[in-house]
Amino acid sequence: MKKILALAAAGMLAVPAHAEELEVALEIPRLRIAEYHRPYVAMWVETESGKTAATLNVWYDTDAKGEDGRKWLPDLRTWWRRAGRAMTMPADGISGPTRAPGQYRVRHASGSKPLSALAPGNYRLQVEAAREVGGRELVTIPFQWPPRRAATASARGTTELGTVRLITRP
Amino acid sequence: MPFTHHLFVRSCLVAAIAGAGLATLMPQSAEAHRRWLLPSATVLAGEDGMVSVDAAASNGLFVFEHRPLPLDTLVITGPAGDTVEPTVIGTGAYRSVFDVPLKQQGTYRIALASDGWAGTYQHAGEQHRWRGTQADIATSIPADATNVVLGETSSRTETFVTLGLPDARALALTGSGIEMIPVTHPNDLVAGEPAQMRMIVDGQPAPGLKVEFVQGGTRYRDNAGVEELTTDADGMLTLTAPQPGLFYMETAHEGVSQSGSPRRMSYTAVLEFLPL
């Protein structure tokens, strides 16, 4: 009964009449190297003081053959310390498999997880990527929530991430 | 009870030299090598995990160059406060090696901790160094030994690893010898961020304790890189790692035991400071 009510509430909240939207467009660069492994990627929102407000997406090796792909989550050093170590993976709607080089977009709406608890204020989007036998990179984009008008901000990674864009829409 | 009298005599001797100073008591202490437990990783994740640990004494950090540490006093405390059984791989020329299975989420304390007696005596015209338990005093030091100079020792060499979220149950004090209460969790250490530790002697905060703090990799630099720190009035110590890496800390304290005999305590730890 409780579950049905919760689901009904979630369903209602998923498409509210005026859902603000947060979209992250990121590039995983193609690297010309002999041994390439797809990077682990974490995207999260933190306050100006560095407190984690919401983990948006975590891409890790969810299907490591014979191994526990979670073993390498601490390589996403900043996310692991700020949020990951206190979370349980896999996490519904947050975790997913690693992605091949290319362009990706993820969208989140206000009122539904993981943004539902985001109070109005100034925040930072953090995108961290770590690659086996490769490097690690963290890209930061400040933003305001909720957005007053549609806005796009971007930052550029130099090694493990290409351009990261943050699009917020009221 | 043939040894009761013997032991009593020893105790009197020990009490008699209590004021003589520990420099003469344990001449080897001044030239002791660094003792360390080096874990293969300190921050781990997943359903379960494994760390491999090297146990060695050396001057260079963290170089296997002098002798292995024996593992007979090894105690691993798990996240539930329980004892975790290691898989001992063995002891080679320069190091002992063991694996620690991490089956529960949380923090593990890996320690070589021992309380005992040590000192010197003369027998048949020769000077002997001796180390053992209190019970050994009566049985292993010849009855006609002279210049018996003994004192209590307490040593702890430890390191910490965490699977998943750091917690504190394995960090509970034993109340004996020098211990560290990590105010900053020992597996939540980041280069550039000051870490707070409280040093404890026999369960009480230890002000004025001199602590050596050294980064590993001594072989690859000209400077010994030893930072000399002193605990404040509350026994607090601030450790700041200028760059990420494995660090060694060491301290010692010389006091008098409840029975009036000299008591030398030592503490060493290996801590990993990560980049952020």
Question: Could you explain the architecture of this structure?
Answer:
- The complex is a heterodimer of chains A (170) and B (276).
- By secondary structure, chain A is mainly β.
- Chain A has a single domain (18-169), classed as Immunoglobulin-like (Sandwich), CATH 2.60.40.
- Chain A contains two helices and nine strands; from the N terminus they run αβββαββββββ.
- In chain A, the strands form two sheets. A five-stranded mixed sheet of chain A has the order 4-3-2-6-7.
- The radius of gyration of chain A is 16 Å and the shape is globular.
- Chain B is mainly β.
- Chain B has one domain (2-273).
- Chain B is 9% helix and 48% strand.
- Chain B has three helices and 18 strands.
- The longest helix of chain B has 13 residues, at 4-16.
- Chain B starts with a helix and ends with a strand.
In terms of topology, how is this protein built?
The complex is a heterodimer of chains A (170) and B (276).
Chain A: H1 2-14, E1 21-28, E2 40-47, E3 52-59, H2 77-82, E4 95-96, E5 102-109, E6 121-130, E7 136-145, E8 151-156, E9 163-169
Parallel strand pairs in A: 3-4
Antiparallel strand pairs in A: 1-5, 1-9, 2-3, 2-6, 6-7, 8-9
Chain B: H1 4-16, H2 22-25, E1 34-39, E2 43-44, E3 49-58, E4 67-68, E5 74-77, E6 87-91, E7 96-102, E8 106-123, E9 126-132, H3 134-140, E10 146-163, E11 178-182, E12 195-201, E13 204-205, E14 210-215, E15 226-230, E16 236-239, E17 245-256, E18 262-273
